Amino acid sequence: MENEPLIDEALKSELAALYRAADRHYHGLAHIEAMLALATEYRRLLHDPEAVDAAIWFHDAIYDSRAKDNEAKSAELAEKRLAGRASPHRLARIAAMINATATHQLPAFRDEDALEDAAFLLDMDLAILGAEPAVFDAYEKAVRLEYGWVEEPMWRAGRAAVLKNFLARPHIFNTQLFRDRLEAQARKNLGRSLQALQDQP
């Protein structure tokens, strides 16, 4: 059971098809590939790299910008599709990591190793916030397209609330590595974006 890979080529193809949906302007395959690249870069620091990879592949598998339960549904899909490939305990850990991407608050793991892996997963998911300004601006535009159905005043108010929430945290990133690498730039990007939202008439 534990010997076969968690995410085999067939499952990758199945998930990649979901991420290629036309309405995914940001939460598509490029986002997953960027996270997988970071997971490869930090692989030696991950305790269960395969579980982190699985959480990356599944965390936005179900994505509807009008829904509030995307992460919960993505976690359910992971548990269903990975059943038999991992122990129930490992599956529960993967599901908890996926669910944590809803709020970007660390799951309540007692296991220190699992907690560190979850911290890396959440930081990889938010790495775009600390990208160089042009890349961050492209991300902002892509997210706006995904919420094209939201009227501009509502969008500005909702997005401003999200940005303020991140800026109010003592740290945007959970791991020291990501804080050192991206925190300062992320705060600049979010501050600039918030200013632009508030400056619009």
SS class? mainly alpha
Please give the domain count. Answer: 2
The description of the largest β-sheet is: none
The share of residues in extended strands comes to under 5%
Q: What is the alpha-carbon Rg in Å?
A: 17 Å
Q: Residue-averaged pLDDT, rounded?
A: 95
Share of helix among residues? Answer: 55-70%
Shape: globular
Low-confidence stretches: none
**Helix and strand run:** HHHHHHHHH
By DSSP (H or I, 4+ residues per run), the number of helices equals 9
Distance between the termini: 58 Å
Beta strand count: 0
Description of the structure:
It is a single chain. The chain has two domains: 9-128; 129-199, no CATH class. 65% of the residues lie in helices and 0% in strands. The chain is built from nine helices and no strands. The protein is globular and about 55 Å long. The N and C termini lie far apart (58 Å). The model has no long low-confidence stretch (mean pLDDT 95).
Briefly summarize what is shown.
With 201 residues, this protein is an all-alpha fold. It has 9 helices and no strands. The model has no long low-confidence stretch (mean pLDDT 95).
Q: Which tags fit this structure?
A:
single chain, 201 residues, mainly alpha, 2 domains
Strand and helix map with partners:
Layout: H1 9-19, H2 29-41, H3 49-58, H4 70-82, H5 88-100, H6 112-126, H7 133-146, H8 152-168, H9 176-199
Helix pairs in contact: 2-3, 2-6, 3-5, 3-6, 4-5, 8-9
